[in-house]
């Protein structure tokens, strides 16, 4: 798959792409699952990033306790994680991401956020920091099957009303890369976490950047080139 000749829509993951929030998710997954006797390795938070919360809980119980959680346990773990997240310091916006999204909009490129999160403050936060409208946010509440299933990115693509060859995804997690690639969309990875580059490339990323500053530079140059013909 080659980079789109004309980019008309960019679909961004949220945690680890727009916000440096994965350290908070790492902490809260470890401590919420510890309540149920699960020693959840920090790398697992990054490997499972993008899944819905309940899906991650089920995977952790199956892997480490050799059983599925009860519905009550699922709700309790997720509620504890949500409470712990609220107590953590606010995650900073990653460098140059506000500037990148502003630039894309000025170039008449549609911008969407595709996240497995369904926190109550999601729309308000993304609107305040990035000017995102509710219709351009696909959250865990909008999908029946989260990442790595293609459904989240297929919803974003359908809302864009564009051919897939004019769309591009930016992800930081293997589950998200797999989701976007399964949806048939060109996917760039930005490695803002703890995983080796090979994990993202093996998941199918078409290109990889070491940080969001490099991503911003490359995307802006690419869009300027297409605007200049």
3D structure, described in words:
There is one protein chain. With 229 residues, the chain is an alpha/beta fold. The chain has two domains: 149 residues, Rossmann fold (3-Layer(aba) Sandwich); 66 residues, DNA polymerase, domain 1. The protein is 48% helix and 10% strand. The protein has ten helices and six strands, in the order βαααααβαβαβαβαβα. α1 crosses α4, α3 crosses α4 and α5 runs parallel beside α10. The model has no long low-confidence stretch (mean pLDDT 94).
Distance between the termini: 22 Å
Mean pLDDT comes to 94
Strand line-up in the sheet with most strands? 3-2-1-4-5-6
- Whole-number total of structural domains: 2
Give the count of helical stretches. 10
Give a topology summary:
Layout: E1 9-12, H1 22-34, H2 42-47, H3 53-65, H4 71-87, H5 97-106, E2 110-114, H6 122-130, E3 137-138, H7 151-160, E4 167-171, H8 174-182, E5 186-190, H9 197-202, E6 207-209, H10 212-227
Parallel strand pairs: 1-2, 1-4, 2-3, 4-5, 5-6
Short summary of the structure?
48% of the residues lie in helices and 10% in strands. It has 10 helices and 6 strands.
């Amino acid at each position: 798959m080659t980079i789109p000749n004309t980019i008309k829509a960019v679909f961004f993951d949220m945690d680890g792409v727009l916000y440096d929030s994965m350290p908070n998710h790492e902490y809260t997954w470890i401590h919420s699952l510890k309540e149920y006797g699960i020693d959840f390795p920090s790398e697992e938070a990054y490997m499972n990033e993008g899944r819905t919360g309940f899906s991650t809980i089920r995977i952790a119980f199956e892997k480490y306790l050799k059983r599925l959680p009860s519905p009550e346990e699922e709700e309790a773990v997720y509620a504890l994680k949500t409470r712990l997240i609220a107590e953590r310091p606010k995650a900073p916006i990653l460098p140059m991401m506000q500037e990148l999204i502003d630039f894309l909009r000025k170039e008449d490129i549609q911008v969407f956020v595709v996240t497995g999160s369904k926190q109550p403050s999601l729309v308000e936060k993304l609107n305040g920091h990035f000017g995102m409208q509710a219709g351009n946010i696909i959250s865990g509440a909008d999908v029946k099957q989260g990442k790595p299933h293609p459904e989240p990115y297929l919803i974003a693509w359908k809302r864009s009303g564009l051919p897939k060859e004019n769309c591009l995804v930016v992800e930081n997690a293997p589950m998200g890369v797999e989701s976007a690639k399964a949806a048939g969309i060109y996917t760039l990875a930005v490695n803002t976490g703890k995983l080796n580059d090979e994990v993202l490339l093996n998941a199918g990323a078409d290109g990889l950047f070491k940080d969001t500053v490099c991503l911003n530079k490359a995307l802006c140059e690419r869009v300027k080139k297409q605007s200049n013909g």
